[in-house]
Amino acid sequence: MIRDDQAIQKTWFLRGKQRVIRTTGKYRGVKLLATVDYAAGQIIWEEDEHYTVETFLSFVQKVISKYPGGKIVMVLDNARIHHAKLLQPFLEEMNERLELVFLLPYSPQLNIVEGLSGNGLNPM
Predict the structure, then answer these.
(1) What is the enclosing helix (H) or strand (E) of 4?
(2) With a threshold of 0.70, does the pTM exceed it?
(3) Residues linked to residue 44 through DSSP beta bridges, in sequence order
């Protein structure tokens, strides 16, 4: 998630001269779904306001359509939506083409997508 938190944590003012700094008070952000193709050096990604099973399924279908032949291995974190029951029929149907491999829990340092910056990314 790319966050746009408008909360101010700390400020410095002379005693008795504190000013009120207005913020939106909203926690906004964009969910980023992405995968890296090591062989081609390409990033397939899309943004959404919500990160749901349906959003994830749509993204996986997009990746599969981008690579119409061969086996696809996706390395994922352990987000709940990656294990949802709603995915099971699709995964069973695609088991010859798609393999999901899960990272260890609480290991974002192993997820290459976590380190991607938004600079220069274009949705595919």
Answers:
(1) strand 2-5
(2) no
(3) 35
Q: What is the CB neighbour count within 10 angstroms for residue 33?
A: 19
Position 35, amino acid: T
Q: How many Å is the Cα radius of gyration of the chain? A: 19
pLDDT tens, the chain, 124 aa long: 555 555 566 677 777 877 776 666 666 667 778 888 878 888 888 888 888 999 999 999 999 999 999 999 999 988 899 999 999 999 999 999 999 999 988 887 787 776 665 444 444 4
DSSP labels for 71-121?
-EEEEE---GGGG-GGGHHHHHHTTTTEEEEEPPTT-GGG-GGGG--STT-
Q: Which of 7, 2, 33 is nearest to 124 (CA)?
A: 33
